[in-house]
Amino acid sequence: MIIRPRPYGPIQKPADALLNSKFMDVYYQHFGKLKREGYYEYSRNTLSRFPLSIIDKKNIELIKQIESYSKQLNESVQKFKKAKTDKDKTFERNKCQSLDDQIDKLVYEVYGLSKEDIINIEDN
Predict the structure, then answer these.
(1) What is the C-alpha to C-alpha distance for residues 106 and 44, in angstroms, rounded to an integer?
(2) Local structure of 12: helix, strand or coil
(3) How far apart are the first and last CA of the chain?
(4) S-S: 99 plus which of 2, 26, 73, 83, CB 3.0-4.6 Å?
(5) Is this prediction's pTM over 0.90?
(6) Residue whose C-alpha is closest to residue 6's, from 19, 69, 50
(7) Of residues 110 and 9, which shows the higher confidence score?
(8) Is residue 4 pLDDT above 50, yes or no?
(9) Which of 48, 53, 50 shows the shortest CA–CA distance to 27?
(10) How far is it, in rounded angstroms, from Cα 91 to Cα 89?
(11) Sequence-distant (≥ 6) Cβ neighbours of residue 50 within 8 angstroms
(12) pLDDT score, position 90
């Protein structure tokens, strides 16, 4: 499996947002194989060791919010690709970064990460 590098390609589902979050970046750095083009490649064994969060009543709203931000991110990526002026490109790039950061925060919340864990991820 090959995971898209940042910056942005299409995110289809909340699971795609998780796989492309900063949280997973740290996991990739420890367990994945970095390809020459900046992609990470994994075997089934590597990905199967990652603990997926159980979707329950507690975090279903978080998952829905991740999905909403993912859709907005995809729309901003398309607008960025079509932007003609530097001002428009900068606006869409900043919007993409903001949405990506919001997705990361929601992923941290879904996994119940501590502030210390989040600082370690953000600093990595």
Answers:
(1) 26
(2) coil
(3) 23
(4) 73
(5) no
(6) 19
(7) 110
(8) no
(9) 50
(10) 5
(11) 24, 27
(12) 94
2, 34 contact by CB (below 8 A)? no
Nearest C-alpha neighbor of 31 from the set 22, 18, 40: 40
Tokens coding 34: 């970095």
By the 8 A CB rule, do 73 and 11 touch?
A: yes
Please state, as a whole number, how many other Cβ atoms lie within 10 Å of the Cβ of residue 70: 23
Q: Tell me: the pLDDT tens digits for 48-104?
A: 777 666 667 777 888 889 888 988 988 998 999 999 999 999 999 999 999 999 999
| pLDDT > 50? residue 8 | no
Report the C-alpha gap between 110 and 40 in whole angstroms. Answer: 23
